[in-house]
Structure formats: structure tokens, C-alpha cells
Input
Amino acid sequence: MIEFTSRQLRAFLLVAQHHNFSRAAEALLITPSGLSLLIRELENQLGFRLFDRTTRHVGLTADGNKLLPVVRRSLEELEGAVS
Output
């Protein structure tokens, strides 16, 4: 069974939206290295990479593109249920 946290999913969503680890980390109020750790843990748990990273660009992989709408929907449902 795959276990991941809402924080990991939120980190994934923010990196996908910002295409930048530093800006996503700022939005989560954590350090870029802390954000990288969250994403790395999520990728390890899922068994595939979510982002193609270079020094100038962060983009979703094909698997990341498939996962994005699922994560977006799941977080919206979770936030709706909590509020």
C-alpha cells in the first residue's frame, strides 16, 4: 500500500504550478531543500519520477502529468470536507 501525506501532495501541486522549487517552497513556508525532500520521498513511494529537473527548468514527466489532475481533485475534496 502506498502511503503519502497531504503535505507531499500539496508540495507536488505547488511545484507543478510554479515550475520552480524555490517559489513552491516559499508558498509552503519551507526551505527549497525541505521541499526537495518531500518530492523525493513521494517519488520513491510512487516508484516513478514526477519532474524533469534542470538548473533552469522544472517540468512534469508523463507520469507527473497523469497524476496532477488526480492530486488536484483529491486535495480539493479534502479541503472541502475539512471546511
In short: The beta strands are 51-53, 58-60. Residues 62-82 form the longest helix (21 residues).
